[in-house]
Amino acid sequence: MSKLNPVVERVTARIIEKSKDSRAAYLELMQRESDTHRDRNVMPCSNLAHGFAAAGEDKDSIASRRGPNIGIISAYNDTISAHQPYGAYPPQMKIYAREVGATAQVAGATPAMCDGVTQGQDGMELSLFSRDVIALATAVGLSHAMYDSVALLGICDKIVPGLLIGALRFGYLPGIFVPSGPMPSGIANKEKQKVRQLYAEGKATRAQLLESESKSYHSAGTCTFYGTANSNQMMMELMGLHMPGAAFVPPDTPLRKALTRGAVHQLARITRDSEDYRPLAQCVDEKAIVNAVAGLLATGGSTNHAIHIPAMARAAGIKIDWSDIAELSSVTPLLCRVYPNGSGDVNHFHAAGGIGFVIGELLDNGLAHRDIMTVGGQDLSSYAQEPGFDGDNLIWRDIPESGDTEMVRPVGKPFQETGGMRLVEGNLGRACFKTSAVDAERLTIEAPCRVFEHQEEVSKAFSAGELDKDVIVVVRHQGPRANGMPELHKLTPPLGVLQDRGYKVALVTDGRMSGASGKVPAAIHCTPEALGGGPLSLVRDGDIIRLCGKTGTLETTADLSAREPVPAPAPQQGMARELFGMFRANADSAELGGSAMLAMGGL
């Protein structure tokens, strides 16, 4: 068994030490909650009768605790392609539960919004805080105290973090995430990117763009690029919260159904009353959080997780920040090139060995913790295998080597020696830089800046030819407290065009970029945010800014000390943004997770 890398060991020890008090308080709370809610039959008869009134043939079993009752929290809707398959899951899962003497009930539903639908639209300003709403909705569903374990049905951007945050407040219950898998591959990613840029230049019509996008996003299942949704699935594997290898098995296939069935059976096996109790609170510990970071860095995953990982960790009493992530990045090699970091998508990645191969490489080289409590194996070693069939039986097999070294490589021959993210900092604050998608010659950009308050202003300036030069585009007042920290992926095509024209171009913002952000250098999630006097509020057009992903630098040569902050634009109304004012007013920083709920809850 490989010795743990000393940096991984040191960072883990630091996280454990600084989390000592908050983690102990969390685990104590979970023990008290477990003792209080151990038996649903302590509930008054009227309460209990309400809980199983519509359970049909399962009534007697739920009433008598003849077997475990599995609560299902579903983020189903049929607007999000990844979540459309979930409509059929609960009836199937009830049958799977009865096979092992258990029952299952839909405990509740959560909202699930698609950043792909809201990208660049007013609704995007609700996106980050939808994670808080999802966590709250999960808590409401589980508050009925009728359940012995929890199946969590969610995949996409804020949905998995929100489900996990909510479920962790009921961490005395075992929980398994049940994915639905990616849609089949559509048109080549380079062709999709080409049409987007042609449209940005006015060289393709809207009809041509829509035809291209429809060939890319074309059926049920997760979008196939390696954005936030698929990075979520990677993290659930690294944390041991899926059945092993479940992440990227396609929808509506025999293997997908077998894995869902296996998850339900496992949820019946690992309850408090079993001899193999695996509560979520024990599964999500400091080592599991470090594993999530290792997977994110090794695969070049979504920058959104620089916000989600601290938030999820806080819900379990664990404290992690960008300095911890940066130090782990210094020893975690980039093992994957999945679009937008490479040409192939997650289906190609999965076929080449995928997450199982990556986990095996990380474990064998001491870059991830093997000894964590998982939901589907004795430790994380089980997740270094891939699922399949032996006749009709679900089995797991070893993955001896990469099936495509242009897609996924061993630690000894990585795409780059360090992870796919870099902390950059200086007199403009602290920010995240996704280095894995950027060519080496563009990791350092120094140029005069052009400052904008809205992403629409950038598009207008591009169309007017005002950005045809070396330029660092600053888009400020996009943080959690200003307007909910929307993704600014709409800027990727015009900035990509400028870069292709030979200009030195970069983006600096206190907003987010999509998990699909690609080749343009970008310092994102700048903190402190501009609202309230953060450094970006002091920047003016023409200031020289230096962004360097090699040295970790984000700074300006301008003297900011004598300047007054530029005030933020007034919050916009419409699309229910006014209802989210309380979230904006109480949100904490991006580095702490950008959450109002966690901040207001004292976590």
Question: Would you give an account of this structure?
Answer:
By secondary structure, this protein is of the alpha/beta class. It folds into two domains: 354 residues, no CATH class; 149 residues, IlvD/EDD C-terminal domain-like (Glucose Oxidase, domain 1, 3-Layer(bba) Sandwich), CATH 3.50.30. The chain has an eight-stranded mixed beta sheet with strand order 7-8-12-11-10-9-13-14. A four-stranded parallel beta sheet has the order 2-1-3-4, sandwiched between helices. A two-stranded antiparallel ribbon has the order 5-6. Helix 5 packs across helix 12, helix 7 runs parallel beside helix 8 and helix 9 runs antiparallel to helix 10. The longest helix has 17 residues. The protein is globular, with a radius of gyration of 24 Å.
Map the helices and strands.
Elements: H1 6-18, H2 20-36, H3 45-52, H4 59-64, E1 69-74, H5 89-99, E2 103-109, H6 115-118, H7 127-142, E3 149-153, H8 159-168, E4 175-177, H9 189-200, H10 206-216, H11 228-238, H12 254-269, H13 280-283, H14 286-299, H15 305-315, H16 322-329, H17 346-351, H18 354-364, E5 385-390, E6 393-398, E7 421-426, E8 429-434, E9 444-452, H19 455-463, E10 471-475, H20 480-483, H21 492-500, E11 505-509, E12 522-527, E13 544-548, E14 553-556, H22 581-586, H23 596-600
Parallel strand pairs: 1-2, 1-3, 3-4, 9-10, 10-11, 11-12
Antiparallel strand pairs: 5-6, 7-8, 8-12, 9-13, 13-14
Helix pairs in contact: 1-2, 5-12, 7-8, 8-15, 9-10, 9-21, 11-14
